[in-house]
Amino acid sequence: MSTDRPRVVYWNSQPTPYMVERWNAVADRGNVEMHAWFNVDREPDRSWEVDESAWRFQGRYLTTTKMGGRQVYLPPPLRETGPLDLIVQEYASPSMALGFFVSRGLAKRVAFRALPTYDAWVSRSRPKEALKHVLFRSADGAKTGGNAGKAMIHRYGMPVDRIHTVTQSIDYAHFASALNVDCVVVEDSRRKLGVSGCVFLYVGRVWHKKGLTELFDAFELLQRDKTHDVSLIVAGDGVDEAMYRERAARLKNVVFTGFVQRSALPALYAVADAFVFPTLGDPHGLVVEEAMAAGLPVICTEAAGDIERRLPGDAGFIVPVNDATTLADRMLALQANPELRNYMARKANEIARLSDHEYYARDFEAFVEAMLSNRPRNAPLAGASRIIGRSINVVRR
Q1: Is the pTM of this model over 0.90?
Q2: Which CATH number fits domain 172-354: 2.60.40.10, 3.40.50.1980, 3.40.50.2000, 3.40.1050.10?
Q3: Inter-CA distances, 26 with 2, 100, 338, 368, Å
């Protein structure tokens, strides 16, 4: 990285805890002048705490502008931002797509952050797909978490040499602290929760597209055999919580904790014996790495971004989507074999070490350097987008 610190802005819809931690790690290294823009402090379907006093980067919330009868978020004008070297941003929302052209007039390079998408989560239409082709043919580059993201970005028209892999990271030390929770405390927590036997844990939104119907189907299959002493903890909140609570009332040993803040998660992971993530289509799902760091074997569907690379067979199981029978079989395999659970737990923890925020910060710096070393995109749409961006910013002065 050059001794002249590049000025980099990351435009994210909201300050998610893991993104804040990552940018703090970049800021702490001191090689990048790190800024972040946010549309809102927290979207309506999220419950995490936002502590702006913990930001060690320069963050700001964007103001809204009325366009076409609707409120949109746009980057601030050049007189406020000053010269920028790189803007990294999302692209999926109307504000982000429109704001991309404004970003083009503010920074030397503009890149997209993109992760794999799944039809179970994303509604597709010809206009939306056409717009993605325009955007990815206009940007200077993109960052993603692995090969699945690379393949998707390339399909939309981004050259392979402009797609960069950056670690999808967690605070490894924080979640690995679950391994140090005293066994007496663990047993007391299990007793208070009312769980026993092999305890399976799910952490995430309580929403059917996270695969919770299949999880409850699988858990019910296990409970049909009275010899299987199993429990299920569901940690989170969401639009389908009432529906799943009603179903849980007909089962034994199912506990809902509500949303659990990040600070309390290691203690909850310590209570569990295995983690289950039955998603129908997650772009990534960082709870997998969190659980692995906490020393839990993981059962995950194949519909989480790059899961084949992230979860090797000695750390857990990958199961098909919408397959409660296979999910139940894998849960039973862990319940019936404590030695297998322990072996996978050790392997999972070892693998999760490579997902720490320090790895993200190094990857991010390499990504910034590659973006600024590479020539600006010279494709026709890229040139047109730069002209549009500069024109917009002239008007906004």
Answers
A1: yes
A2: 3.40.50.2000
A3: 15, 23, 40, 11
